[in-house]
Write a structure and sequence with these properties.
Elements: E1 2-3, H1 15-20, H2 33-43, E2 60-62, E3 75-76, E4 82-83, E5 93-98, H3 103-118, E6 124-129, H4 134-144, E7 152-154, H5 159-164, E8 168-169, E9 171-175, E10 181-186, H6 194-200
Parallel strand pairs: 5-6, 6-7
Antiparallel strand pairs: 1-8, 2-10, 3-4, 5-9, 9-10
Length: about 200
């Protein structure tokens, strides 16, 4: 599990720093990391986000937001048209916040894709990328990884993530059919595993 930030081979820096650098470039190759990180540190202070403790399957379960309404903040469909979580109301909804440079995020995406295919018509699974490059960055990634059941939604300015109060990637939030939060997890999960099945069963 990693905190949201700019790309790195093994870790993600804090969300607060990434947001304070709204004009930062998109993810760069690893051999440019050192100079880029130094420039980032000089440009703005960072506020570390503590790592969540590990739990079975790597995720930490949080029910402290239970009952909160899903945010109305829009995000983007492939091609740039706006979308909102409210459009999925009527069925349970699993919302995953991720990024291409977040290793735990990338690892769990195939299990989310399988879940989306299996739960069609019963539960919506929405994966929303926080990559600064938006559609142009995520589209090629989607094709190269063979994800077919999920749609490549994006939120390049991280506004929806902020509206949920989350600060780490990956974060996944389960909503009931009325748009109320049931629980959330931080850290990579195997969404085809038994622990995940128990959590999804809490939606009722």
């Amino acid at each position: 599990m990693r905190s949201l930030s700019r790309p790195s081979l093994i870790a993600c820096l804090p969300l607060v720093a990434a947001l304070s650098l709204g004009g930062c470039d998109k993810a760069k190759p690893s051999n440019e990391q050192g100079a880029d990180n130094a420039a980032t540190a000089a440009a703005a202070p960072t506020v570390p986000v503590p790592a969540a403790p590990a739990a079975p399957e790597g995720g930490k379960v949080d029910r402290s937001h239970k009952g909160e309404a899903m945010p109305a903040m829009p995000f983007a469909q492939p091609g740039g048209a706006p979308a909102t979580l409210a459009s999925f109301r009527g069925h349970p909804l699993l919302v995953n916040f991720w990024a291409t440079w977040c290793a735990p995020c990338v690892k769990e995406l195939p299990t989310l894709d399988a879940l989306a295919g299996r739960e069609t018509g019963k539960m919506a699974v929405v994966a929303i990328s926080m990559d600064m490059g938006g559609d142009a960055q995520v589209g090629p990634f989607w094709k190269s990884h063979g994800l077919t059941a999920l749609t490549a939604y994006t939120d390049a300015k991280n506004r929806l993530l902020q509206a949920t109060g989350a600060s780490e990637l990956p974060t996944t939030i389960l909503y009931d059919a009325k748009g109320k939060e049931v629980l959330r997890t931080t850290g990579g999960m195997d969404w085809s595993g038994p622990d995940a099945a128990k959590l999804l069963g809490e939606v009722g």
